[in-house]
């Protein structure tokens, strides 16, 4: 956060995560911490004096699967895991987490939720935690992180009984309600679209599966508040208010209300919509040194182009980056501003593979909203498993999706704004890994991006393309490639070729022969 940023009225306090440095979790949870045994749980004494018990199984999983914690995790996990049953505690606050992409924000709420569930009897009649995400891919990713910490049922661990459910597609609501009436999931992960359906179906919160929700998590909050979301905001507020009313009427409970946690990498602090969520004494967890920090391991470049020669500049870069350096393993993400343009780039690279690459072929994968949930899962699995792969997509994948081992991100054209740029390039150079980002756009567009990046102490540098590309890929070859590409797109428009059809040898020969005629 820059020094001249105006803090909105809805933020009451700020926790600066710059003060939390990486250490091995086996040593301490926070700087100056000690770890003490406390029966089946572990007590972690934090540097600011917060004592909280952490389920022993969770601590063991953290030690084995996460060797280091990011500063945001070291700040938020202890805060949310602290015993908040005292309604007069100064720590009884909702929180907003504003941290760069790739810093493990999901773990900030997964651990506290499971830790809380491990201490109390599970309620089969109500959802305990609802997590809202902007896309089904992020919902599945969140689900998979929960799964990392749920022990097998034969271990006898209390946590093995916790039920996690993802609602990411169309549901028969009456059937779903009947199924969950007496066996509610403890954690419900929902897309924004499903939340909208819930808000219209469950009009009486008191008699619904949401009557005792203790945790309300909204991941990528800025993606949600930028839509027409008033009904969903009112629905989440109604869930929170129902929990407050229920607990206030219970003389045996001193806790004042449920816990709201909002997370984002590019939250707009000036957005008035956040205030509509009625946050209680909200604390902002962020870095005071930079509000949109990019990884120090990220190299950022630009290649000047106009619309007409952008395809050639892309191929020149691929030749220079992959083949001149003899890379055997690489994962690339190419972002465009529209689904239609993503498809054209996908076809371009499929034909490039077919026409000009002999041994060094790479897998070309296209991500679109039209894919079924099963097809999307298969696509991501193929991308992760291939040694050489290129995934082309629009911005739906740039938010929160964990596509590991990405070496390079390419912006095919100027991103619509600096926040989109940050989200895109944040897919690479993650967790101490090196990565590069290349933006192929007009000079004016590059200058505009650099102007905004200078305030963050970074800028795009020119990428110098290979000088021998024209020798290998002559103008006549490029013209032939573009001619076949145009013919391929004509086939699609005429219904002779489906959008998701692969260009196999038979189809290629048919198109190539038609083009030569």
From TrEMBL:
One of its GO terms (molecular function) is ATP binding. Keywords: ATP-binding, Helicase, Hydrolase, Nucleotide-binding, RNA-binding. Residues 86-285 form the Helicase ATP-binding domain. Residues 310-473 form the Helicase C-terminal domain. It is an enzyme of class 3 (hydrolase). Transmembrane segments: none annotated. It catalyses: ATP + H2O = ADP + phosphate + H(+). Its EC number is 3.6.4.13. The keyword Hydrolase applies. The Q motif is unique to and characteristic of the DEAD box family of RNA helicases and controls ATP binding and hydrolysis. Belongs to the DEAD box helicase family. RNA helicase. This is ATP-dependent RNA helicase.
